[in-house]
Amino acid sequence: MTTDTLPADTETVETAAPARPHYRVIGTRPVRPDGVEKVVGRALYGADIYLPGTLYGKVVRSPHAHARIRAIDVSRAAALPGVKAIATAADLPLVEDKILVTGEGSVNQRYQSMNTLARDKVLYHGHAVAAVAAISPHIAEEAVALIEVDYEVLPAVIDVRDAIAAGAPVLHDDLRTAEEGHKRDGPTNVAEHLRYQRGDLARGFAEADVIVEREFVTATVHQGYIEPHATTVLTNADGQITIWCSTQGAFAVREQTADILQTPISRIRVIPTEIGGGFGGKLTVYLEPIAALLSRKSGYRPVKMAMSRAEVFAATGPTSASVIRVKLGATRDGRITAAQAELIYAAGAFPGSPVGAGAGVIFNCYRIPNLQIDGYDVLTNQPRAGAYRAPGGTNAAFASETVIDEVCERIGMDPIEFRLRNGVREGDYRATGPVYARIGLLETLEAARRHPHYTAPLGGPNRGRGVASGYWGNWDGTSSASATVNPDGAVSLSEGSPDIGGSRASLAMILAETLGIDVTDVHPRIVDTDSVGYNDVTGGSRTTHGTGWAVYDLGKKLIAAMSQRAAHLWEVEPEAITFADGVFSCGDHALSFKELAGRLGEAGGPVMVSTTMETTGAGPGFATHLVDVEVDPETGKVTILRYTAVQDAGTAIHPSYVEGQMQGGVAQGIGWALNEEYVYDQAGRLVNASYLDYRIPTALDLPMIDTVIVEAPNPGHPLGVRGVGETPIVPPAAAVANAIYHATGIRMTTLPMSPPRLLEAILAKES
Amino acid sequence: MTSRVRVEAQINGDPVEFLCEPYQSLLEVLRDVLGLTGTKEGCSNGNCGACNVLLDGVLVNSCLVLAPEVHGHEVTTIEGIAGSDGLHPLQQAFLDHAALQCGICTPGFIVAARALLDRTPHPTEQQVRHWLAGNLCRCTGYDKIVRAVLAAADMMETAR
Amino acid sequence: MITVWVPALLRDLTGGQEVIHMQAETVRQVIEQLDARYPGIAARLLVEGRLRPGLAVVINGEVSRQGLRRRLAPGSEIHFLPALSGGA
């Protein structure tokens, strides 16, 4: 299927026993079931919903990074012809503290309400203050400009180092530092301090022959999904609310909106549209509660809201800027004796940075007898940090994996050899505590070492090769689904996991494999919150694992139900029916799944099954990446010459979409490494809220990204699946930094390693 | 309020007449007035290519074209790429190569790639990357997109 | 025997003890016994008689959703960790 000129640079490595079962569908590469409507432009995304009588909503956003709202005057906007409703925080009920686990961290609903529409203070440039619904988007925009907000501007703080300094402006007067169930005294911007600790740090460092200690600084970055947030909401006069939106979790939108509006959850129905990328940024609501309010206040008309790209950058997403200190000790023979890290992550305007997850990533690849990790969740006058693909992991691995590279250099050991000696395997304990079941880190390292890339000549000056590994914990979560058998033998699958990267294909394949039918005979549909049981979000790399398991369970239930029908048909007991290779049989009787489906009318009636599962056993993902770079010493520009990503997928259901996750994660990681950052002015205003100035990688910035899928089956899943979506963004920044070092002799400790920063370092080294 | 402008154009081969405000973009009219929602809005300032259409065969960002400018001209959107006999080879190649994940950028990429293959039937990998540098994809890392475009060029050559 | 890892920031209550062994059949019993030995620990792990929001109980490497009711097989290992999907 690939072109002659460019053979697929992918290999699949099956690891040692237990031998992988023989699959008929799993491991093949069928066309995705939702593909055609996406390539012809018919697929409907968040902004593609048009209802009769729709109004258009627009948001008034704060021009200040930190200010008290003295008054809001909406009278001129309300008088503009065509304006139908205006909403401010005064229209929102007060919300009590309530922690919701989103799958990539947690959010407090009280803060979500304050983020939806600012109540007393605006906490970042772009914070929503009011909203307007009008008969056209242009009138709504005009009305937005007519709303007058009287602000008392307050000092703002953007950098975490400033935010924790004595005398820093405090964002929330009532916030106290939480420390494992204890609250410290006094106002602060430090929302939480967490710690992992084991062994004897001092003794561990005393045993080390080499100790490397470095401080790293990383910038705020955005998920950068191409589809801006968009929703259409209709509030009916009976209080029933229908929400069409682009989201990673329809049930999450339902619960968050219900809490923010203090409305019974069952009065809200969420219809998920296609989603144009999320990467963690579409787990929480921004527009939906506002549109619901505007719909009610406009006399129950549908209200459509879509963010501009500038709003997406200014008010959603980003993941934390950070300051990370790492100290690592090892013996001359390449054994880590002790490791210490301090991670300070910017949470933005409300608590909840991914510092806990970053603290998990930083050392979880290695067996470390003595360690301490301290994490600090720090408020800054920035948009509330959202989840971003392996939240907190890329910057954490940037720190630890470059320190390891330096240790390897100091003791003169090959970086893959060092990682093999210290890498975790089944039975080892994570730095964060719990024990590992079967995992595939060592297999990724072996495959990377065997790969021709690792020994290929670099072929020129100013070039270097970098290695880095990465961990991500993955999530299992709750999934529900149902299936019906059609008379022609096809199976309709109703599920509730928004499809971000081809999950309909992998779910259809799992069901086809289980039932012994063709994948084209499975028709997956992602349905609304009234039409399927509860589903956790598409997040935490959980869908193929969790929803895949639910679908596997559906398959088993379908076989049982169909066996009953066969028994009825053949007038035998259900226990007498056997099912193998897609055929039901009993004595001389035999019918394929399809044949039996055509005879259900005489066999006891139609078949429908459903399942809901709290799945377990999300096996952690591991990856090892190799990258070659060339650094232009005149400009500091880094060119990625070659990239190879090796990852354990457990069992790759649809290898093309596994590769796609790996390639996409690498591309995002390279953007984070080399270009992407939020830039602020002195007053804390974001000054680069566009794709022109916040530059994500283009096709011209990247080479082909080679992939090697390793399969160390996850013992916690019936098909051996482990999530693959997030792990591949963890190693790239470190791998690129290590490659830059080997090209230039410069250890970069700041992200992004953009041309001006690298050039400055090159010039400093030369002088 | 301004008075609305009457515009006549050929859109995907059909004669189309519409009224619009003079300040409305082609993107807005395609989506909000004509119901052609296959053309996507990613940034509305010409950086992402999700709104790519062909204007008299030339690749443009429809967010940067004012709707009245297409009066008397031909517009091809993603909805006009497939023929009556089935998918365009680019569309088939995108499916075969798993060249889309979320799919929001796909219409823009296919329209842009069609413009490339119209003038350069046998592009090199570098030519594909250079041409598609105006289209942003955040999911795929471009690898499978570039392969799909090269494969479509081969399919079209075989068909000729 | 159940093995309980004491969260690092609670070890001021356990005199620095990192690992504690005990007999227990549920997570609730684990916390009760911890509190009996080291008064004050339950107040750090529970809010209004339930696990503190944002805290996850991890048993043999798996996050439990059953909170205090979760039954423990002999030999189980327990960690109390921040409730995160990826970081646990």
Q: What is the domain tally of chain A?
A: 3
Instruction: Output the number of helix runs of chain A.
Output: 20
What is the quaternary state of this protein? heterotrimer
Highest-level CATH class of chain C: Alpha Beta
Distance between the termini of chain C: 23 Å
Architecture per CATH nomenclature, i.e. the level-2 architecture of chain C = Roll
Describe this structure in words.
The complex is a heterotrimer of chains A (767), B (160) and C (88). Chain A is built from 20 helices and 32 strands. Chain A has 767 residues and is of the alpha+beta class. Chain A has three domains: 51-154 and 229-306, Aldehyde oxidase/xanthine dehydrogenase, a/b hammerhead (Aldehyde Oxidoreductase, domain 3); 322-474 and 619-766, Aldehyde oxidase/xanthine dehydrogenase, molybdopterin binding domain (Aldehyde Oxidoreductase, domain 4, 2-Layer Sandwich), CATH 3.30.365.10; 476-614, Aldehyde oxidase/xanthine dehydrogenase, molybdopterin binding domain (Aldehyde Oxidoreductase, domain 4, 2-Layer Sandwich). With 160 residues, chain B is an alpha+beta fold. Chain B is built from five helices and five strands. A five-stranded mixed β-sheet of chain B has the order 2-1-5-3-4, sandwiched between helices. Chain B is globular. The model of chain B has no long low-confidence stretch (mean pLDDT 96). Chain C is of the alpha+beta class. Chain C has one domain (2-82): Beta-grasp domain (Ubiquitin-like (UB roll)), CATH 3.10.20.30. Chain C has helices spanning 27-37, 41-45, and strands at residues 2-5, 19-22, 46-47, 50-51, 55-59, 62-64, 77-82. In chain C, the strands form two sheets. A five-stranded mixed β-sheet of chain C has the order 2-1-7-5-6, covered by helices on one side. The longest helix of chain C is centred in the middle third of the chain and has 11 residues, at 27-37. The model of chain C has no long low-confidence stretch (mean pLDDT 90). Chains in contact: A-B, A-C.
Features:
heterotrimer; A: 767 residues; alpha+beta; Aldehyde Oxidoreductase, domain 3; Aldehyde Oxidoreductase, domain 4; 7-stranded mixed sheet; 6-stranded mixed sheet; 20 helices; 27% helix; globular; disordered N terminus; B: 160 residues; Ubiquitin-like (UB roll); DNA polymerase, domain 1; 5-stranded mixed sheet; 5 helices; 5 strands
